[in-house]
Design goal:
The protein contains 6 helices and no strands. The chain has one domain. The chain is mainly α. Helix 1 packs parallel to helix 3.
Amino acid sequence: MIATQDKYLEAESVMEIWEEISHQRVKYIVDSYQLDGDDNEDFYDYLEDLLQAYAPPQIELALVEVLIEGWRNFPLVRGIQFLERSHNLLKSWENKTINPNISAMHFRLITGLDPTPIFGMSIPQTTRSIFPSISK
C-alpha cells in the first residue's frame, strides 16, 4: 500500500513539474516579446484563465502565430488585445485538427524553445557525428 502511494505521489509530482515548466514556457514567450504591454495585472489574469482552459503547447503556438501576424502591422499589438486575438485563434482550433502556419524550426528560431511539445517527436533533429565520414 505504501509503495503504491509513493508511486502515486511521484507521478503527481512529475505532473506538477511538467505543468510548471509548461506555464514557464508560455510566460517566457510573453516576456521575450513584452506581449503584456501596459496591461500587466489584467493581462496575467487573462493568461492564467487561458492556461486553465487550454493546453500550454496550444497557447504557445497561438501566441507565436499571432505574434507573426502582428509583425505585419506597426506598432505590434500587445496587452489584452494581443491575448484576445490569441484566444480567438485558440477557439477556432477547438474540435479541429490544428495545422500550424509555422514550422518547428521557425518556432524554435522565434522562441528559442524546443518545439517538441507543439510539433511532437516527428521533428527531424539535426545530428552531426563527431567522427568525419570515412570514404574508401
